[in-house]
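Exercise 3.2. Students should predict the tertiary structure of the chain below and write it as structure tokens, then compare their answer with the key that follows.

Predict this chain's 3D structure.
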Amino acid sequence: MLNEFKNFIAKGNVMDMAVGIIIGAAFTGIVKSLVADLINPIIGLFMGGVDLVNNFIVIGGDGAEYESLAAAREAGAAAFAWGSFTMAVINFLIIAFVVFMLVRTVNKVKDAAAAEEEVVAAAPAGPTDNELLAGILDAVKKK
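Answer key:
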């Protein structure tokens, strides 16, 4: 059973998946920074300086006003955090677009490599050993 497990782990697909997960986790930090540090300020500029993440509606409760989503959550209010959800959707769309561009680029590189291999395979390979030997035999017979 241990050998089967070693064979399973040693397969390329499992290792590729592990590398993908590790890089994906690291990439998440970059995307979060992109959204929080670059995109949110631009969206806030168009919305009059409003931080989209702090847009929320208190559901029920005592009618108290809270200055931020964090303050509402600390007070135990039921908050409909539509701004946070919107930012999560934006994060997803950015990640999906970047992954799409990455996969598209990788596919183009693979297609280019495959096209080069086809060109090399399509080039005449020259005579085989049997053809060379037959030519030598014919030349010897003529003399």
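Discussion points: Residues 13 and 19 are 10 Å apart (CA to CA). The beta strands are 57-59, 78-80.
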